């Protein structure tokens, strides 16, 4: 399998989150789902418990939610249109590249990215640093999908085992 080195900005558009004023937050389901950061991130999908009636930045279904503030590099999938706060970025993978491959790559290197992040109290990564992140990816989108599909099968087995364990514990 041939690999090529690319910068993230070459294969994806990055939308940095921006938090609305807290007066627009609610837990009553009014407006659209809102995520400030990773507080409600699951293994692959966030749990929504906060909504907002005013927002500036959003992630769309199928985009990668990427944490840009402590901890840097955690990922989840956007399963619906979600307003994103300053702790997150939405990664919109361009055509001819595999969102699944990029998701699993970030799952793998997320902890490493957190150790490289800057900051004294809160570690963070800004748009320029994220955009210029250099990564190796398979040159062919077919190979990218092949790798991602293999990892997704493992993820599905883990989810199923977790569900079984939850049922046994109940």
Regarding quaternary structure, how should these chains be classified? single chain
- How many strand units? 11
Average pLDDT score: 93
- Strand residue percentage: 15-25%
Radius of gyration, rounded? 17 Å
Find the structural class using helix and strand composition. alpha+beta
Descriptive terms for the model:
170 residues; alpha+beta; four-stranded antiparallel β-sheet
Account of the protein in words:
By secondary structure, the protein is α+β, with helices and mostly antiparallel strands. Helix content is 33%, strand content 24%. It contains four helices and eleven strands. A five-stranded mixed β-sheet has the order 3-5-4-9-6, with no helix packed on it. Strands 2-10-7-8 form a four-stranded antiparallel β-sheet. Helix 2 (99-116) crosses helix 4. The longest helix is centred in the last third of the chain and has 29 residues, at 141-169. It is globular, with a radius of gyration of 17 Å. The relative contact order is 0.20. The mean pLDDT is 93.
Kindly summarize this structure in a few lines.
By secondary structure, the chain is α+β, with helices and mostly antiparallel strands. It has helices at residues 8-11, 99-116, 127-131, 141-169; strands at 3-7, 12-16, 25-26, 32-35, 51-52, 58-59, 64-67, 75-77, 82-84, 88-93, 134-138.
């Amino acid at each position: 399998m041939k690999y090529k080195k690319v910068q993230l900005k070459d294969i994806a558009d990055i939308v940095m989150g921006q938090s609305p004023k807290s007066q627009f937050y609610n837990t009553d389901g009014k407006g659209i789902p809102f995520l400030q950061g990773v507080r409600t991130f699951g293994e692959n999908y966030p749990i929504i418990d906060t909504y907002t009636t005013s927002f500036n930045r959003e992630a769309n279904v199928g985009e990668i939610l990427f944490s840009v503030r402590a901890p840097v590099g955690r990922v989840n999938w956007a399963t619906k249109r979600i307003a994103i706060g300053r702790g997150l970025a939405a990664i919109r993978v361009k055509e001819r590249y595999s969102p699944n491959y990029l998701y699993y790559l970030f799952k793998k290197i997320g902890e490493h990215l957190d150790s490289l992040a800057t900051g004294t109290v809160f570690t963070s990564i800004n748009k320029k640093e994220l955009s210029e992140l250099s990564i190796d990816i398979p040159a062919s989108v077919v190979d990218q999908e092949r790798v991602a599909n293999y990892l997704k099968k493992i993820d599905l087995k883990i989810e199923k085992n977790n569900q079984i364990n939850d049922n046994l514990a109940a």
